[in-house]
């Protein structure tokens, strides 16, 4: 007989509680990889991108593992010349948060930088999109995974390819091939601008 059973002050733990705690432990010891795209075309774009990266790192259950180079990109999906150009980057995180909580956190980061939602694809101080979460595929409009337009966007694929050359986009194939198909027009590297991996 072990010590627990011989101690009359220790109550048995119900099996359901043991299962719940074990499940949480598995999630905590098995963080998932997620790819997050950042874009900004209003205000101090570089400072805002760095602020968003730092805010992600400050999230319990999120660790930023890689930060891509910065690209200056033509606004996608709107009339040419109608908006300032974007700075775009991608970060890879490891997270113990489920996808829905990661999206909530992404929205909180957008709000912290005073993003205003006025029109579809309107100019913004910051956009935080979840490009991919592990191999999850979901057509839920609240959180579609992978991001439904990521495969069409060189401003997402180019920086992602820089940090993960072998990456694949679930349901679409290798990022390198997708990028080769759509090309890099309007997506210019900005080696003079640098984002830091949080310490
Ligand atoms: N993978 C995803 N990442 C972020 N938001 C998503 C995702 N899938 C669905 N959404 C939903 O899309 C809604 C609109 O997002 P948002 O305002 O950032 O769109 P947008 O950046 O203007 O355009 P786009 O979705 O084309 O990037 C969000 O409220 C969110 O619930
Ligand atoms: N170049 C560029 N264009 C966009 C971007 C973006 O981040 N970069 N984001 C959009 C909505 O998510 C719409 N258009």
* Largest sheet features: 6 strands, antiparallel
CATH homology superfamily name: 7,8-Dihydro-6-hydroxymethylpterin-pyrophosphokinase HPPK
Shape: elongated
Task: Please tell me the CATH architecture by its name.
Answer: 2-Layer Sandwich
| Strand composition percent | 15-25%
Radius of gyration: 20 Å
CATH fold topology: Alpha-Beta Plaits
Number of helices: 6
Secondary structure category? alpha+beta
Average pLDDT across residues? 90
Number of domains: 1
Element order: H for helix, E for strand: HHEHEEEHEHEEHE
Spans where pLDDT lies below 50 across 5 or more residues = none
Residues in helices, as a percent range? 25-40%
Which ligands occur here? adenosine-5'-triphosphate, 2-amino-6-hydroxymethyl-7,8-dihydro-3H-pteridin-4-one
Termini, distance in Å?
Answer: 48 Å
Query: CATH class, please?
Result: Alpha Beta
Number of E-type strands? 8
Keywords: ATP-binding, Folate biosynthesis, Kinase, Nucleotide-binding, Transferase
Pathway: Cofactor biosynthesis; tetrahydrofolate biosynthesis; 2-amino-4-hydroxy-6-hydroxymethyl-7,8-dihydropteridine diphosphate from 7,8-dihydroneopterin triphosphate: step 4/4
Domain 7,8-dihydro-6-hydroxymethylpterin-pyrophosphokinase: 120-131
GO molecular function: 2-amino-4-hydroxy-6-hydroxymethyldihydropteridine diphosphokinase activity
């Amino acid at each position: 007989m072990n010590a627990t059973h011989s101690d009359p002050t220790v109550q048995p733990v119900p099996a359901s509680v043991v299962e719940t705690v074990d499940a949480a432990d598995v999630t905590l010891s098995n963080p998932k990889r997620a790819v997050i795209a950042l874009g900004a075309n209003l205000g101090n774009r570089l400072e805002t991108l760095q602020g968003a990266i730092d805010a992600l790192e400050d999230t319990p259950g999120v660790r930023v593992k890689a930060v891509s180079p910065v690209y200056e990109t033509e606004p996608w999906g709107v009339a040419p010349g109608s908006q300032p150009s974007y700075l775009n980057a991608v970060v890879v995180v490891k997270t113990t948060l489920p996808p829905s909580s990661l999206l909530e956190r992404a929205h909180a980061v957008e709000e912290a930088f005073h993003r205003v939602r006025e029109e579809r694809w309107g100019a913004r101080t910051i956009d935080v999109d979840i490009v991919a979460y592990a191999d999850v595929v979901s057509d839920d409009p609240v959180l579609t995974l992978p991001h439904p337009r990521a495969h069409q966007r060189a401003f997402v694929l180019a920086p992602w390819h820089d940090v993960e050359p072998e990456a694949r986009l679930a349901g679409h194939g290798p990022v390198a091939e997708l990028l080769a198909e759509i090309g890099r027009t309007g997506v210019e590297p900005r080696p003079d601008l640098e984002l830091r991996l949080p310490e």
